[in-house]
Input
Amino acid sequence: MEKFDLYDVNRQKTSLTVERGQQIPDRLYRSVVHIALFGSDGRMLIQRRQKDKSSWADLWDFSVGGHVISGETSSLCAQRELKEELGIEYDFSDIRPSFTLNFETGFDDYYIICCDVNIDEIVLQEEEVQDVRWADKEEIALMIDDGSFIPYKKSVAEMLFEMKDGMGAHKV
Output
């Protein structure tokens, strides 16, 4: 059973953990990561979750997502999840999340990486992912609207596309 470290409101790790599926105690938080992988043509690699997943089954999602397990950092989780779900090795040791969004029970770190990947060489984690493909911003917005994509706020997807060319809130 996977265990997750719990953090305080300032994202300081506590000595507490929870097992997957357990309720997060009040005023404590878990950590999650998402990766948006962009090709040189500006499209994002998206994945379709398996039909038997307990949440968001059979829906399209950003390139990779997962929970930070106990003892792991956000960047180590991103590296592990990318390898597990898509078979892609990428060094996250010097990479910070492009941004973090808070949600009710946690912190959600978004990593943006740019690298051309041959879809035919991707090794899918069959328990998690049933398919991958490239999509542009407009396609993802339409998929969110038609219910075939996880119902993210479209502004999150737009921000991923906006930030693929550099970090920060300012245009340079």
Q: What stands out?
A: Residues 2 and 23 are 14 Å apart (CA to CA).
